[in-house]
Amino acid sequence: MNKWQKIFAVFGIAAMSVLIIFPPQVVFKDNVRFLPITYDYPIEWMHFFLWFLAIIFITCLGIAINKDEHT
Judging by beta carbons within 10 Å of its beta carbon (0-12, 13-18, 19+), is residue 69 exposed, middle or buried? Predict the structure, then answer.
């Protein structure tokens, strides 16, 4: 891996860690907030899944784009 691929991988891992620590939780009927996992509100799984996919997509795209460049 080159320098840029490592940077994208580190940002992706950090973003996934933050998402796991602060998942989207349903506070009220139509109110979703990113609160620490220690709060006992139910997790909004659809938002969690979409954020997870977005982070994976952007991380993989950044790694793929920089595959041959900057080496």
Answer: exposed
Reported as type and span, the H/E element at residue 3 is helix 3-21
**pLDDT of the residue at 69:** 57
**What counts of helices (H) and strands (E) characterise the chain?**
2, 2
- Cα 25 to Cα 12, 19, 52, 55: the distances in Å are 21, 11, 14, 18
Distance CA 43, CA 25 (A): 4
Q: In percent, how much of the chain has pLDDT > 70?
A: 94
Q: What span, in angstroms and rounded, lies between the C-alpha atoms of 57 and 7?
A: 15
List, for the chain, all residue ranges whose pLDDT scores fall below the cut of 70.
68-71
